[in-house]
Amino acid sequence: MSVVEEQLQQPATPAGPMIRTLVGVAMLSGLLVVLTFHFTKPYIDENQRRAIEAALFQVVPGAVTRRDFVVAEKGIFPATEKKQPGEMRFYAGYDDKGNLLGIAANTRAQGYANLIHLLYGYDPVCQCIRGIKVLKLAETPGLGDKIITDPVFVANFEALDVTLADDGKALANEIVTVKHGSKQNPWEIDAISGATISSKAVGKALNESAKVLLPMLIPHLEVIETIIDEQVTGETNNM
Amino acid sequence: MARKQNNEITWDTFSEGLWRENPVFAMLLGMCPVLAVTNSAINALAMGVATTFVLLASGILISLLRRQIPKQVRIATYIVIIATFVTIVDYSIQAISLDLYNALGAFIQLIVVNCMILGRAEAYASKNRPLKAFVNALGMGAGFTFALLCLGVVREVLGAGKLFGFDLFGPQFEPWVVMVLPAGGFIVLGAWLLLFEWFKQRKAQSESEAVVEAR
User: Fold this and answer.
1) What's the confidence (pLDDT) of residue A234?
2) Mean predicted confidence (pLDDT) in A54-72
3) B183 touches chain A (CB under 8 A)
4) Which chain B residues are closer than 8 Å to A29 by Cβ?
5) Chain B residues whose beta carbon lies within 8 Å of the beta carbon of residue A140
6) What are the backbone angles phi and psi of residue B68, rounded to the nearest 5°?
7) In the predicted model, is pLDDT for residue B3 greater than 70?
8) Under an 8 A CB cutoff, do A13 and B175 touch?
9) Is the pLDDT at A217 greater than 70, yes or no?
């Protein structure tokens, strides 16, 4: 600090009151924040759980129960409470009798403004994606957020083909986003005109996730059906 | 200002924030949330209420501590106090509705740097008694919410054909998309400012004409 600046700061207050004020205010502030955090945490957790569940039941129609699993090289395991970094987690949706209806997984890709976070539902019977739910996006209102509202675009995901190739190691056809009005194959996504970047991001997110997850998941699909049949009896929900 | 020296609480203490010193239409403070979150009426209302809460709570606390806070550290102290209440609002909105929280995004946290709140702390709460600071903050908050709603209602009706999420015109309505885009915020704000300025000038003109006639 220069001499001139020091002279400007008169009359000088001793350091004591300044430190006392700042420490006192900071402590009060810490106390208030901690109290609020504790008070609101159960409500926030409950809201988040409900948001995930609502999204899952939307992309896996008819599901009433959910189980979390982790897929790895060796097979499928029930997910632990705590998330491990780098694990591939997915949710399985079951009907009231405990039959597997479909699975859902999170994915994301860079959109126009920021990352678009999605949950998509995979139906093992038709080997297709049955629905997507946008969990978080920051796309331009009125343009990019049409990926949620545009009925023609949403119809892309009624049965988006993700059949595995014959060797089971990759998708038979990668998911591609095509120009509006030029969709011809069941693995293509018809983009929204005026929101091409957001549409492409959805296609990319689905493709990246499906081509990694499905080849690992499908050989072990029977495992999650049998595990669940034992677990479901006499038990409702333990999320 | 001599008016602020006395401790009397008048209707003016409350109403100056609503109209004469409206933070948006008269002082043009806190423009960032005004333009950013007013693409729907419900976002505008939530933002207004959240800002009003921070304004009220920080106003009272700063007014209570006004004799304890040394001049050199006052800004730092105000910011810590404001940030505390913003964090409380942030958690509360998450607990109330995640959808609303996602819609408002980073703008809740950014209330901390809303210059209107710091401006009120510095210019009013630090010089007046808690009750007076409270009444004034309530007026300012109401004025801010009113201004946000002015923008939010116009932009939602024109840009989405809805009001508070309810469809107004049916499926035949073609939304005027630019209104919910950032550019629409500037256009609507400009239109409102034009209107308010016109009112003000007309009033000033009729007053000066009255003076001339009196001569």
Assistant:
1) 41
2) 83
3) no
4) 80-81, 83-84
5) 181
6) -90, -20
7) no
8) no
9) yes
- B98:A138 CB<8 A: no
Residue B91 is nearest to which of A22, A40, A138, comparing CB atoms? A40
Closest residue of chain A to B177, computed from CA coordinates: A142
Supply the pTM of this predicted model. 0.75
Read off φ and ψ for residue A91, nearest 5 degrees.
Answer: -115, 140
Length of chain B: 215
Contacts of B91 in chain A (CB under 8 A): 36-37, 40, 44
Residue in this structure with the two tokens 């190739």, named with its chain if needed: A165
B208 and B200 Cβ atoms separated by less than 8 Å = no
Q: In this predicted model, what pLDDT tens digit does every residue of A181-212 receive, in sequence order?
A: 888 888 888 888 888 889 999 999 999 888 88
Distance CA A190, CA A151 (A): 11
Q: Do A142 and B69 touch (CB under 8 A)?
A: no
Give the per-residue pLDDT at A5. Answer: 62
Cβ–Cβ contact B69 with A under 8 A:
yes
**For position B22, what pLDDT does the model report?**
86
Following DSSP, what letter does each residue of B85-147 receive, concatenated?
A: HHHHHHHHHHHH-HHHHHHHGGGTGGGGG-HHHHHHHHHTGGGS-HHHHHHHHHHHHHHHHHH
Interface check B75 vs A, CB under 8 A: no
Using the Cβ of B42 and the Cβ atoms of chain A, whether some distance falls under 8 Å is answered with no
Tokens describing residue B61: 């606390």
Under 8 Å between Cβ of A183 and A156: yes
pLDDT tens by residue, B12-51: 888 888 888 888 888 888 888 888 888 889 889 999 999 9
CA distance B73 to chain A (A): 6
How many CA atoms does the CB half-sphere of A122 hold within 13 Å? 25
Q: Where are the beta strands (DSSP E) in chain A?
A: 65-72, 75-78, 88-94, 100-110, 115-123, 128-136, 160-161, 176-178, 188-190
Residue A228 pLDDT greater than 80, yes or no:
no
